[in-house]
Amino acid sequence: MFSTVCRSLLFLMLVVFVSVGLYQRWDERALFYIKELQANAEVQASSIWLPSYRVTLSDKAIDGLEEGEVSGLTYRPSSNTLFTILGKHTELVELSLTGDVLRRIPVTGLENPEGVEVLSGDLMAIVDERQRTLTIFSLTASTTQVDARQQIQVDLGFPDAGNKGFEGLGWDSRQQRLLLAKERDPRGLFSMPLPSKSGPAQGMQELNIDDVFVRDISSVSFDPRTGHSLMLSDESRVLVELDANFRPRSFISFATGLNGLGWGIKQPEGVAIGADGDIYVISEPNLFYVLSKSDAGDD
Q: Is residue 22 part of a domain?
């Protein structure tokens, strides 16, 4: 009787493990990991190459942001700083490269901002998931507030997306185009020329990301040094490097105990890559991480 119960429990555990693995696409991740191990030095040198990164700053609380939840992250070369957006009490927050708050700018006219991105010059953009809008505005050292209703606003479509709409936003400086990530159901990655006026989105094209082994997309970031992109997944807890054709090139896991992490990154919401190649990640509730290149191999 005991052995029968044990066998039933083991079988049930196996079914659950396989089901979760298929849901999380662990099989695809494992196959890609084998391919990643075979990459030569030339491939690695032409890539961001995430297996060479380790966490150098972990679980840093962003002081003073208790009232809101961070979402989205972007790097601004002209000031060598980062920007994130708060959702509950909408504010644009400028951060140092070590996660300290430098400036807070109230933003009105939005409902559920999820992604923020530095464009060319002083231009920045915010994507609102609930409104399904892209807002483009100018941000200078003297800017003290932003009213989204007074800026260029583009309707991104997908009226039935609900809370699974556009969440990630990136800027491809090489091709001067926006990268827009739809979270899930279905997930998607789109490119669009920089709009010059308000109205429906024009020239939006869906990119093929069928090979990318993530359940959802939280954030995207473009690396002008390599022409590659970073795609962050909350549900899969991974960061994936995509090549110029948006195929997976490398990845890193944010699971507990890996890549210099203690308890892992449980809800990663934003990613950005700096001029020197350091990678910055924020997670709810308001935690900050830095990943830097290391000579060490995989854990």
A: no
